[in-house]
């Protein structure tokens, strides 16, 4: 089998790895998910657990275990809330997020049966990466399972230096926003090899040379344009970013590079356990400490205000409950209670004639005149 040995049968306590696929529209995310789904089914003992989070997709080339379209109706949301396509997708994702605790319960229930959980996100990358619902889903999953972000890049469209730089800046932003292990996946390598991208990432001078040779890099006077100077500067800034980044080239059509991708997932899993989990524990401890300090501060301010109020209002000390000795006189007051249940009837007493008979001596039956 071609699957990594570490993903084969092992300890039952080992949690499955979560792969969150993110990428620009048309980068091939759904096709990539279909390819890794096929690869795992062919080369692995356990099938993956797949979640589709795109409510607007008409068809997916795989069978998801959990589909957002079963929970929310994207078109109906657009009609009810008078929204456009992007607003409908965002609102559908927000509504689905309100039930994501149930999704986590299902994932926890299926965890012993799977080794990989795959999330296919909406095509509109900004809806998932920069929305509150996307952050909630990512943080919730990452706090429960080892999670890796796979950023899918459309390799043929990245041959232009400006497009390449745009993708790298977006990847950098997602990396520092999620703080999760990150893998750059150059897709469609059957059309265009990703070697040029790896060279640009390793050698910023090669990128600057490609940028200088690209049309439109100089103005009419032969001077570098503003965009040219900006991208030159950004290539120097991102040089440190590239050093700590894993990059693989895959073809979702032919399946080339899928094994290398899962090797990178296993390496990233180690990074998750060594870096992300300790950071998550520190963040939780800091939050609990902050909450405790806030409670103590509130209590101290309350006691301070109470002391000041007592000092200003000297009559406040006179307002107190009476002692039991002072209330003893009230306890000796004679109260005459009358229980008329067994007493003789008195004039005007109500008598329910519907419950009496002629033989009753107390009844005063009227006589005809």
Features of this protein?
369 residues; alpha/beta; Rossmann fold; 7-stranded parallel sheet; 13 helices; 47% helix; disordered N terminus
Give structural notes.
With 369 residues, the chain is α/β, with parallel strands linked by helices. It has a domain of 249 residues: P-loop containing nucleotide triphosphate hydrolases (Rossmann fold). The protein is 47% helix and 10% strand. The protein is built from 13 helices and seven strands. It has a seven-stranded parallel sheet, with helices on both faces. The longest helix is centred in the C-terminal third of the chain and has 55 residues. The radius of gyration is 37 Å and the shape is globular. The chain starts with 16 loop residues before the first strand and ends in a 38-residue tail after the last helix. The relative contact order is 0.10. The N terminus is likely disordered.
Outline:
With 369 residues, the chain is an alpha/beta fold.
Spans where pLDDT lies below 50 across 5 or more residues: 1-11
Beta-strand residue fraction: 5-15%
Q: Gap between N and C termini, in Å?
A: 116 Å
Shape: globular
Radius of gyration: 37 Å
Helicity level: 40-55%
User: Strand count, sense and closure of the main sheet?
Assistant: 7 strands, parallel
Regarding CATH, which class of the domain at 23-271?
Alpha Beta
CATH homologous superfamily caption of the domain at 23-271: P-loop containing nucleotide triphosphate hydrolases
List SSEs in N-to-C order.
Answer: EHEEHHHEHHEHEHHHHEHH
The average pLDDT is: 83
Strand arrangement across the biggest beta sheet:
3-2-4-1-5-6-7
Structural class: alpha/beta
Main location: cytoplasm
EC number: 3.6.5.-
Region (Disordered): 305-369
InterPro entries: Gpn (IPR004130), Gpn1/Npa3/XAB1 (IPR030230), P-loop_NTPase (IPR027417)
């Amino acid at each position: 089998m071609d699957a990594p040995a570490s993903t084969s049968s092992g300890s039952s306590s080992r949690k499955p790895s979560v792969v969150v696929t993110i990428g620009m529209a048309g980068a091939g995310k759904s096709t990539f998910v279909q390819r890794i789904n096929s690869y795992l089914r062919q080369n692995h003992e356990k099938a993956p657990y797949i979640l589709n989070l795109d409510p607007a997709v008409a068809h997916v080339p795989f069978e998801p275990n959990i589909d957002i379209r079963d929970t929310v109706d994207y078109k109906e949301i657009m009609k009810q809330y008078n929204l456009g396509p992007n607003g409908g997708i965002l609102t559908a994702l927000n509504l689905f997020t309100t039930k994501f605790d149930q999704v986590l319960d299902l994932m926890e229930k299926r965890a012993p049966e799977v080794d990989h959980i795959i999330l296919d996100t909406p095509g509109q990358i900004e809806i998932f990466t920069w929305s509150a619902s996307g952050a909630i889903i990512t943080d919730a999953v990452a706090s429960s399972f080892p999670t890796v972000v796979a950023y899918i890049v459309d390799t043929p469209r990245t041959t232009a230096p400006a497009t390449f730089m745009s993708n790298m800046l977006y990847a950098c932003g997602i990396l520092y926003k999620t703080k999760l292990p990150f893998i750059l996946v150059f897709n469609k390598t059957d059309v265009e090899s990703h070697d040029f991208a790896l060279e640009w990432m390793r050698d910023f001078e090669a990128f600057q040379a490609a940028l200088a040779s690209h049309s439109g890099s100089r103005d009419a006077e032969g001077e570098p344009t503003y965009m040219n100077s900006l991208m030159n500067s950004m290539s120097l800034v991102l040089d440190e970013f590239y050093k700590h980044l894993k990059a693989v080239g895959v073809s979702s059509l032919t399946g080339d590079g899928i094994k290398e991708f899962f090797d990178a997932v296993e390496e990233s899993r180690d990074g998750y356990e060594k870096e992300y989990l300790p950071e998550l524990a520190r963040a939780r401890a800091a939050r609990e400490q902050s909450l405790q300090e806030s409670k103590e501060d509130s209590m101290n301010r309350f006691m301070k205000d109470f002391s000041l109020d007592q000092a200003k209002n000297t009559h406040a000390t006179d307002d107190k409950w009476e002692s039991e000795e002072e209330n003893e006189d009230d306890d000796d007051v004679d109260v005459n209670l009358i229980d008329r249940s067994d007493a003789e009837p008195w004039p005007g007493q109500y008598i329910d004639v519907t419950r009496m008979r002629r033989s009753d001596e107390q009844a005063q039956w009227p006589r005809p005149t």
